[in-house]
Specification:
It contains twelve helices and ten strands. By secondary structure, the chain is α/β, with parallel strands linked by helices.
Length: 298
């Protein structure tokens, strides 16, 4: 009986692993498909996150001549800022699971004349780099979007040198982030189901500060800190906000593209009504809250 129970447990574990691997492949394809939207809005994304990026750099303190890895880099904003700090004798590797994203990041580095930057396709959950290869690891708004953030955090520690530093940012509670929650709520109400669906990593998967801190400590990082930061989103109009969100919203981009026009119009109308409290004479100003996590390889 005990042997049968063990076999059943092993079978369930194997099924779970296959399901997670399938989800991982779907997410990788999805991010590859939306890379074009991130290229179009890269400057706006960086401008909105400029203060957050500076806080990440202040926490991780990249120094002249050091090696920096920017994980889930998207169009590369955090890594490009770090490249200026490490100087010509240092190196920044911009990495993402989507080759389209790393191509965008590489083009932006070249346009800025940053010769100390390279780009690689790397999986945040299985970083194809040697142990202790980097002085600093950055990850801006990526860790919450992987199926196994604990595994990813252990990988981050593995590639850090002793004394190396990590700074990462994730989104805080959904109710504190109407800049995206408004869209999620409008789609959920129209479709009659939760968006994103249960089991799919969402921007708010790591919204709890205590959970984020525990994740870093469980990866055996020291000097762990988690700080809440205000990251509002300002847009000239509802239309500007809506267009950008449709292009950048990952899984939602695909969902919206598949809907008939009447359903899409209804979602847009719901979102516009929900966004009215955030209207100003300059356009929209929607609150946002990020969690900034840091730690050090002992």
């Amino acid at each position: 009986m005990q042997a049968n129970s063990m076999v059943q447990h092993a079978d369930r574990q194997a099924d779970d692993e296959r399901t997670e691997d399938q989800l991982r492949r779907q997410l990788h394809r999805m991010w590859a498909e939306v890379a074009g939207g991130w290229a179009e809005h890269a400057e706006d994304v960086d401008a909105r996150s400029a203060q957050l990026t500076q806080r990440m750099l202040a926490l991780s303190t990249p120094r002249r001549g050091e090696r920096v890895l920017d994980l889930a880099c998207g169009p590369g904003g955090a890594g490009l800022a770090a490249a200026e700090q490490v100087g010509p004798g240092g190196e920044v590797v911009l990495s993402d699971i989507a080759a389209g994203m790393t191509a965008i990041a590489s083009e932006r580095a070249a346009a800025r004349g940053l010769n100390n930057v390279t780009a690689r396709v790397l999986d945040l959950e299985q970083i194809d780099e040697p142990d202790g290869a980097y002085d600093v690891v950055l990850c801006r708004e990526g860790l919450m979007l992987v199926p196994d953030p604990a595994r990813a955090t252990r990988e981050i520690r593995r590639v850090l040198r002793p004394g190396g530093r990590v700074a990462l940012a994730v989104w805080g509670p959904r109710e504190s982030n109407p800049w995206l929650g408004v869209m999620f709520d409008a789609i959920s109400a129209q479709l009659g189901c939760r968006v994103p669906p249960a089991g799919v990593p969402s921007p708010f998967s790591l919204e709890d500060a205590e959970e984020l801190g525990a994740l870093l400590r469980d990866a055996r990082l020291s000097d762990v800190s988690v700080t809440e930061l205000s990251v509002p989103l300002r847009a000239g109009s509802f239309e500007d906000w809506w267009t950008a969100r449709c292009a950048l919203a990952g899984p939602l981009t695909k969902i919206l593209a598949s809907l008939p026009s009447d359903a899409l119009d209804a979602i847009r109308a719901r979102a516009q009504e929900a966004a009215r409290p955030y209207e100003t004479r300059h356009g929209l100003e929607l609150p946002g809250v990020a969690l900034l996590g840091g730690g050090r390889h002992p």
